[in-house]
Every structure is written in structure tokens, then in C-alpha cells.
Write a structure and sequence with these properties.
about 45% strand, globular, about 120 residues, alpha+beta, 6-stranded mixed β-sheet
Length: about 120
Amino acid sequence: MGDFVQVAQQFTQFYYTTFDQNRSNLAALYRDQSMLTFESHWVQGTSGIVEKLVSLPFQKIKHQVATLDAQPSSEQGGIIVMVTGALLVDEEERTMNYTQVFQLLPDGAGSYFVFNDMFKLIYG
């Protein structure tokens, strides 16, 4: 039963490392039915999601994960992952807090893909 936590931890580490190094390489994690909601604006499909991520207005970014929670999300083996943390962009010295939720679904080949991805900065 605890296997979903290990999958969530491995996914999260891979996702943020890849995001911080080269956002376009995240394409393999999404499918045409995947959806991203980024700061209340949504896009669907691999190409739209990657286009949104690479068009974000910063060059450098570093995610620092503070918490990670995971639960099974379906009888078909899905996993819901909630992350909180801080990020540092470009030459800024002050971090911004964020929360992000992923729903991972099995891809049928022994791995997972991101079906839902919701990101929100936390102000205040």
C-alpha cells in the first residue's frame, strides 16, 4: 500500500529537477488528455502544456519542496500528489511559496503520466 508514496516521491523529484533544468523535457510526462491549470488559466494536451511552461517569464528557477502528500486516487492505480514549497526565480533573493497538485495515472507500460496538474502561488 505504501508503494504510492514512493512513486509520488520519485515523480516529484524527477518533475522539479527536470522543470528547473529544461522545462521542455517535461513533455514525456503528459498526454493529449492531460490538463494543466496554472494560476487559474488552464490548457489541455501535451503541446499546449509544454508551450505554457516554456513561455513562463523567467530564465532560471529553483523549486524547494517543503511537503509532499500522496494518496491512491482510483481503483485503476491512480495517485494524487500534493506539494507545497518555495521557488526562486532568476536573480530574485526572496522566495515565492507555491502549492501544486498532480493526479498521476498508470500509462499501461509500467509507468505513470500526469493527467491533472494544478499550480498556484501562495500570496501573503
